[in-house]
Write a structure and sequence with these properties.
By secondary structure, this protein is an alpha+beta fold. It is 31% helix and 22% strand.
Length: 158
């Protein structure tokens, strides 16, 4: 597949079939080993199939566990639609927004967001739960002949 064909294919509208959507996301990420797809179901006794999709190492694991735990115990209210209810529930963990195309889904995945795909809906919810790397306080390994304090600085990389 050429890069022109690939960039055009990424702009396609997502399928409302969960399996097809997850297969396509896996394909456009190059079947990356870092791509994690965690299927689950929620709702009443029949359950609605869904999946959390994220890149390993780019999302905050604690926020992800909280989000997955909340999603599994999510109960539908009869008078409301599934998607807005689920979005409001996920807003408590991180900024959640509706994503309508594969290109934006891929961009969000690579920025450290988690996608929540629900069977029967073409769009996904993108939840911002990025993990920031931190550098510990250590002795500098370069310039060992410099006199003075031997500590390095600590900062969060954002």
């Amino acid at each position: 597949m050429t890069s022109t064909n690939q960039s055009n294919s990424v702009k396609l509208q997502p399928s409302d079939n969960l399996s097809k959507k997850l297969s396509y996301i896996n394909e456009i990420t190059g079947k990356s080993d870092d791509l994690v797809i965690r299927p689950f179901s929620f709702g009443n006794k029949d359950g609605i199939r869904a999946a959390m999709v994220y890149m390993d190492g780019l999302v905050d694991d604690r926020a992800l566990q909280k989000m997955l735990g909340g999603a599994k115990s999510f109960e539908l209210q009869e008078d409301k639609s599934v998607f807005p209810q689920f979005q409001a529930d996920l807003e408590e963990i991180g900024h959640a927004e509706k994503v309508l195309d594969y290109k934006t889904m891929l961009e969000r995945l690579l920025k450290g967001n988690c996608l929540c795909a629900i069977d029967g809906f073409a769009s996904c919810l993108s939840v911002a739960i990025p993990q920031f790397s931190e550098r510990p306080v250590t002795e500098p390994t370069t310039e060992t002949v410099v006199r003075g304090p031997r500590e390095g600085s600590w900062k969060t990389l954002e």
